[in-house]
Write a structure and sequence with these properties.
Bound molecules: S-adenosylmethionine
Shape: globular
Structural class: alpha/beta
Number of strands: 23
Strand content: 25-35%
Number of helices: 8
CATH superfamily of the largest domain: Vaccinia Virus protein VP39
Helix content: 10-25%
Number of domains: 3
């Protein structure tokens, strides 16, 4: 069947209509004439793949990744990076307008850096001698030895790991590199793994939960701040764009003249420690023990006295804070904010909120829920995850 693709959906799939039923076509671009093969059909929609490209878009690019058609990691390797950025900006505008009633001119623009080799971390799965990513929508493994998204040092180590006979049962591999030095850390998960050949190939080696090297952490930098990182701690994966995102938050904090700041979902203390010199006091909260242990170390590493950290779930402790907070920074996981947290944020009634979000849909929901008390001043989009459909936003909300 031949169809013309009208636009892209929020997951980067082409959209067309067959007898008025919406059809999502993986790998097709707007304006393209394609012959498709339907792979799934329900009452409301169908899913298809491109069988033959009959008339291709001028925005189509040659795919450089040999695993692209099997691996579920990327969805935009066939689209020019310029168009990917335009698409992501438009996607945020559309979601904000549709789900939160935010006018499109509030979305200021999109920031981006490299489209390839930008990730400082990889997680690979291992099964039946194969090491790679999960195939999209399944647990079968696509062996990968050169992912175009990750730092080249990670790819080198993956290739070395693939030469080793681990003997026991290896289940998962996590590798993280420093943003600015040659330090590299590796975690192996499995049973009876023979890891000795890897001790000389990394600075930190963790096997299950045991640290096998003298060091248990590496240092990574963002701007002029340094951060200790353990293998299980959260750290933004984009090596270069994170600095621009944090600079954006720093700019907002500077202009706000805030004194007391809550940094909710603070990870290893990154944002709080990035802005602490502009304010009197920062309180960071995160539920992960590993994150908060690193955050406390990071406080010392950056010679900071005015930041404190709590290892708690935000929703369990936010009711303890009162109206002396000038600014609340939130950076929740994709699920966004829970209702108890939103209610308490409104009760605290800080002059401003900075919302850092990795999911525009839950962000729009939360903006709508906060609408009686807070209005959006501006939204900046950051292409933190090039070649995938994911996107990050920084939103400034002012108290009404
Ligand atoms: C997107 S990360 C943000 C980290 C940090 N702001 C940064 O820029 O590196 C979200 C963080 O929320 C934490 N988290 C998840 N659920 C939580 C909860 N209910 N309460 C507190 N922290 C939570 C995770 O441990 C993770 O560090």
């Amino acid at each position: 069947m031949q169809v013309v693709i009208e636009k892209l959906d929020h997951f980067g799939r082409g959209i067309t209509y067959i007898d008025k039923k919406i059809c999502f076509v993986k790998g097709a671009l707007p304006g393209e004439l394609v012959e498709i093969k339907i792979v799934k059909e329900t009452k409301k929609y169908c899913e298809a793949v491109v069988y033959k490209l009959l008339d291709s878009s001028i925005n189509r690019e040659e795919v450089r990744c040999p695993f692209y058609d099997r691996c579920g990691g990327c969805c935009f390797s066939h689209l020019s990076f310029v168009e990917e950025n335009k698409y992501k900006l438009e996607k945020v505008k559309e979601i904000m307008e549709r789900f939160a009633g935010i006018s499109r001119d509030k979305i200021e623009g999109i920031s981006y850096t490299e489209s390839e080799f930008y990730r400082n971390k990889i997680t690979l799965h291992c099964k039946e001698g194969k090491i790679g990513y999960y195939k999209e929508g399944s647990k079968s493994i696509v062996p990968v030895n050169n992912c175009l998204l990750v730092d080249k040092r990670i790819n080198d180590l993956v290739r070395e790991i693939k030469q080793i006979d681990f003997k026991g049962k290896l289940e998962k591999i996590v590798i993280r590199v420093s943003n600015d030095s040659d330090k590299i850390m590796l975690k192996l998960v499995g049973n009876n793994i023979n890891y000795h050949d890897l001790l000389c190939k990394c600075d930190v080696l963790v096997v299950n939960d045991c640290v096998m090297t003298r060091d248990d952490k590496i240092i990574s930098t963002i701007g002029n701040r340094s951060y200790f990182l353990s293998i299980d701690s959260f750290f933004q994966v984009n090596k270069t764009l994170t600095e621009k995102l944090y600079d954006n938050v720093r700019d907002i904090v500077r202009k706000s003249s805030s004194k007391k700041v809550l940094d909710l979902y603070c990870g290893v203390g990154t944002i709080g420690l990035y802005v602490n010199d502009l304010v009197d006091e920062v309180i960071g909260i995160d539920s992960s023990f590993s994150n908060i242990r690193d955050a406390v170390r990071n406080k010392e590493l950056n010679n900071t006295l005015n930041v404190t950290f709590m290892c708690e779930k935000v929703e369990n402790v936010i009711s303890n804070f009162c109206d002396d907070i000038d600014l609340v920074i939130v950076d929740p996981p994709r699920a966004g904010l829970d209702s108890a947290t939103k209610q308490n944020i409104c009760r605290i009634a800080s002059q401003k909120i900075v919302y850092v979000s990795c999911d525009p849909v839950t962000l729009a929901r939360d903006i709508k829920d906060l609408d009686a008390f807070y209005q959006v001043e501006g939204i900046r989009v950051f292409n933190m995850f090039p070649r995938t459909y994911h996107v990050e936003c920084v939103v400034l909300l002012n108290k009404r």
